[in-house]
Amino acid sequence: MELSKNFIAGEAEAKWYAHWLDKGYFNSTPDEREPYTIVIPPPNVTGVLHMGHCLNNTIQDILIRRARMQGKNACWVPGTDHASIATEAKVVGMLRERGIAKSSLTREEFLAYAWEWKEKYGGIILQQLKKLGCSLDWNRTSFTMDKDYYQSVMKVFVDLHGKGLIYRGKRMVNWDPVSLTALSDEEVIFKEVDSKLYYVKYLLTDKDGQPSGDGAGLTVATTRPETILGDIAICVNPTDERYTNLIGKNVLVPIINRVIPVIADEYVTMDFGTGALKITPAHDKNDNVLGIKHNLKAIDTLDASGKFTAENLMEDKPSELVLSYVGVDRFALRKKIVEDISALQLIEKTEEYKGQVGTSERTGAVIEHRLSLQWFIDMQKFIANNPEILSAVSDDNIAFHPAKLKNTYSHWMGNIKDWCISRQLWWGQQIPAWYDEAGNVYVAESLEALHTNQPATIGMQLKQDEDVLDTWFSSWLWPMEVFKGISHPGNDDIAYYYPSTTLVTGQDILFFWVARMIMAGYEYAGQRPFKDVYFTGMVRDKLGRKMSKQLGNSPDLLALIDNYGADAVRFGIMVSSPAGNDLMFDESALEQGRNFNNKLWNALKLVKMWEARVADNNDTSDPNSFAINWFTNRLNQVKAEVEILMHQFRLSEALKTIYSLIWDDFCSWYLEWVKPGFEQPVEAAVFNTTVAFFEELMQLLHPFMPFVSEEIYHLLRQQSTDLCVTQDAPTIAAAVPVLQQGELLKQVISALRDARNKNQLKPKETIQLHIQTEDSAAFKAIENIISKQVNAAAVFYTNDTVANSIVVAVEQNKFYIESEQKLDSAALKTDLLKDLAHQQGFIASVQKKLSNEKFVQNAKPEVIELERKKLSDAAARIKTIEEGLAGLN
Question: Which domains does the chain have, with CATH numbers?
Answer without folding.
Answer: 183-360 (3.90.740.10), 585-803 (1.10.730.10), 825-888 (1.10.287)
